[in-house]
Amino acid sequence: MTDGAANPATSATARTAGTTPLVEMRKINVAFGGVHAVRNVSLDLHAGEVVGLVGGNGAGKSTLTKVLSGAQRSDSGQILINGTAVDIGNPRDAKAQGIECIYQTLALADNLDAPANLFLGRELTTRIGNLDDDQMEDATRKVMGRLNPNFKRFTTPVVSLSGGQRQAVAIARAVYFNAKILIMDEPTAALGPAETAQVRNLVRQLKEDGIGILLISHDIHDVYDLADRVSVMYHGEIVDTVNKHDVSTDDILGMIILGKKPGEVTAKDREELELRA
Amino acid sequence: MTDVAGTTDVAGTTDVAGTTDGAGKLPAPEGRPSIGDLIRATEIDLRLFGMVLALVVIWVGLGWANPVILQPVNFLTFSVQAASTAVLATGMVLVIVSRNIDLSVGSVVGLIGMGYAVFMADIVPTTIGLSNPVGWIIALALGVLFGALIGAFQGFLIAYAEIPSFVVTLGGLLGFRGLIWQFSGGTTVAPNLPTFNLLGGGPEGSLGGIWAWLLGALLSAAAVLLLINARRTRRKYGFPLRPMWAEAAIAAVSVGTILAGVFVSNSYHWPPGLATQYAVAHGITEPPGGLQIEAGIPIPLLIVIAVTIAMTFLTTRRRFGRNVFAYGGNPVAAELAGINTRWVVMRTFILMGILCAISAAIASARLNGGTLDLGQGYELYVIAAAVIGGTSFAGGIGTIPGAILGALVMQSLQYGLGFLGFNSPQVNMVAAVVLVAVVGIDQWNRRRSR
Ligand SMILES: Nc1ncnc2c1ncn2[C@@H]1O[C@H](COP(=O)(O)OP(=O)(O)OP(=O)(O)O)[C@@H](O)[C@H]1O
Ligand SMILES: [Mg+2]
To answer: Any idea which fold B51-205+298-449 has?
Structure first.
């Protein structure tokens, strides 16, 4: 919010300034020994909004989102959900707040099949507390049918599925439980063109349903296509958060590579960019 | 058979049902199916199938070397001996599946066994009295509680204090064995309550005759009902079904195995001396040729059956078991999925402690007391049984029936070779070769199938 005030021209928060954001992350810091992976990062996300989070390798994107999903404790900073400060100490806390995450590493139990992975930690049971594997398989067939209609291997351990099929299982798991806040860390990295299109449609549909989505991707066009706003991270810090309509993909690329806002880029920087491109 | 109208009717209905299920779901295999295809259609674990075959080969070999070993009485002695390690092997599966190890089981068995003996020999006579009919139940309950506490203690150090299980349970292996000496004053403690000793089997500690048949019938009915129920729910959801003949084959094999087991155990009769004593005590006049009392299924074997069923249920049908496997497959994923992974790990050790108490009951009941070396070396046999049964040290893979079969393989070698006159160092060498070879073949198989 203070970021917005400082840069009224490119401020993206101004658009939704009136309403309370679904998520506000304030001055988050995470350090691993000497590596300051996330430095004073503030970010907000509104209901029905897709925020793209981009940056080079090791910029701190995954670490920042893990703080929100409870997978990583921050050293300092605050998280507010619907304006109320919350303490997210572990993944259970995050799920209780309606936060679901598709991890870059997928976080699947390789030895279990797709239904067991989809319901990992939230297994469906019968009245007397026995696992209801048939119901879980049925639900998995339905949700996978939307993501990857050709998928048939519901009783094989996911270790023997293809990379894209595994990713589909991870996505299915995140969307099945009616998340309010969805974090997608490189959700289409392993997907073929048809499956990527399915995921894009899914993102649009979830957005329409009023879900706030934090989308990390190295595919600038993917982000540009789906996101309302784009936050660029560089060496653990946010360079800027911009409204997609105010900038070009080249501007975003410049921010990712140089860590500078479009207005601050010098002629020398431009030369360098062209050399690299 | 065919002239009985009822039978034909049943067969007719089954056939119709079979064709309906098959229609449009499982395409008929082209040409003649191979044996492999047929086995695959039953969805039987090929590994387990191989182990059953190995057991058969072992026993055929033993019988060829000395036919006397195939007499029912030897089967029963063998199964009683295998019982205490088989019980432990089921728990070791869960411990290893969740990427831990428990080296302390032998010492914990010894400690709890000594605890039973001290309780029954020193405490019961002056408190609840030797003739109290529930004395053995109190002893067993205290043992189970004691085992759970030991497991909770070790499990806490492993899961919450994050000390490697190898270290904690190595400490347990040494420390608890030492505690047995402290506890007993360095001597054997005896006797147990006679009712408690029934847990160790023997002619009196068996479920014989009609009761064994009733139990067999009950288990058979349960097996068939489970199969029918599983098929019904899969059909309800429209999932692919096994072909009807495969279902029938599985049912027939299960029921056949159960009833054959009962038949074998009932074909052993009480030794004449004991039967005479029994006749005198109950005022029965012995018929010529002596009173024939069917021995039936030894109680330790009943305990193994009950533990196997309970542990299989726990691992495959309950959330706890699923979470153990999830943690073993990918600890990080389990944590990120919101599973309380520390509590899951701690519970595997609590469970192991409870199984130690059950195993200790069987072992000390057979000995009628607590000895200083009770359970010594169990850990190695139990770990070997779990590993032969397909449990992987990489975590996330293992089955309860596999571990039981593994324990049977280990004990068959142990008992059978001993019976043939090999000494125990020789037996150990054979067991060592089998252990390493089985795991080696398994590894080779997995690499090939990948
Ligand atoms: N568990 C950890 N221990 C130590 N350092 C870590 C850990 N996780 C991340 N880091 C470091 O923190 C920095 C940020 O990593 P992060 O994974 O957040 O980057 P990223 O933006 O997601 O990169 P990528 O695009 O490659 O996924 C990197 O320098 C990384 O080496
Ligand atoms: Mg990342």
So the answer is: ABC transporter involved in vitamin B12 uptake, BtuC (1.10.3470)
Contacts of A138 in chain B (CB under 8 A): 237, 239
Domain boundaries, chain A: 4-98+180-276, 113-177
CB pair distance less than 8 Å for A110 and B329: yes
Strand order in the sheet with A76-81: A35-45, A23-32, A76-81, A84-86
Contact B233, B18 (CB under 8 A): no
When the pLDDT of each residue in chain A is averaged and rounded to a whole number, the result is 86
Provide the residue ranges of all domains of chain B, joining segments of one domain with +: 51-205+298-449
Q: Is A105 in the pocket of ligand 1 (CB under 6 A)?
A: no
- Say which CATH topology domain A4-98+180-276 has: Rossmann fold (3.40.50)
Ion ligand 2 — residues with CB under 5 Å? A 62, 104
Q: What ipTM describes this predicted complex?
A: 0.86
pLDDT at B269 exceeding the cut of 60 = yes
Phi-psi region at B395: left, alpha or beta (left = phi > 0; alpha = psi -120 to 50): left
Read off the pTM. Answer: 0.86
Residue of A28, A30, A35 with the most ligand 1 atoms within 8 Å of its CB, for mutation: A35
Portion of chain A with pLDDT greater than 70, in percent:
92
Hey, which of A32, A43, A68, A217 would you mutate to test ligand 1's pocket, going by the most ligand atoms within 8 Å of its Cβ? A32
